[in-house]
Amino acid sequence: MKILVLFFLLFIHLNIFSGTLSVYDNVKLNSEELQLVNSVSREAFIKINNFFYGTKSHSDLKIDLYIETKSVIEKSEGILLSDSILGLAIPAENKIYLVYPFRNIRDYPYNSLPSLIYHEIFHLVLSDYLKTSKIPLWLNEGTAMHLSREFIGEKFLLLSWAVALNRLITLFNLNNSFPENRLTLAYVESHNAVSYLVDNNGETSLQILFEKVRRTGNFEEAFFQTYNKSYLEFSNEWEAHVRKEYNLFTLLIQGNVLWGFFALRLIIFLPIKKYLNKKKLEQWKSDEESGVEIN
What is the pTM for the complete model shown? Predict the structure, then answer.
């Protein structure tokens, strides 16, 4: 006979329009943390529903939000979480996990607990709104970051280095997954691409885009109808924007002394290296034409 270990469970049921959000505290939060999770969850659920449905309509989505330790989540879901994972949304089950202990409680919006809650709730509301329709991963994550007002302080450094080293990830390569070895850059690019859309077309354009995706079931068709340009045209336009705004000179001007030093070295030595490589290729070509074998 198996022995069942019962953990203390504090259950909070939040009645929000016809949707509900239930918070399960399995780690015995202190009163300040519990109050924060409670209030922010309610606020986020309402605001994100309003973003998609407006104030006159809403969904009947029911969300279960669990506060658990990393080991409990891994055991419950049969997965391994990297140490960088602070929260997990499972749209198929309308379930959210917040990893305890929390890394950052109130330093909003620097990857704080409030921004994390907004981010994860967005994923579930979006999935419920779109039903079976799909959007690129970068748009999903970028909009979650935009609405949760997340901020990655080193974004200009990451983008500047990516441009300088020709390491930008194209949006098409962020459609379905993010590369594990460049995860932070993938999130920064996603956020930047969504910010670029909002800066040039307004936040309402995102709402229009999602509504058209929901109705047509075709992201590229919906994108063209919303922005009067193809997804490919936007991708190329955004990349050109990033290469113009974030480069070695950005790094030199905005970075600290150490980063500025490295940027200055690259500014000086990259053209020299390109010149020497060009001369070497010309020499090889000359040797080949002269019948000299190159080993």
Answer: 0.79
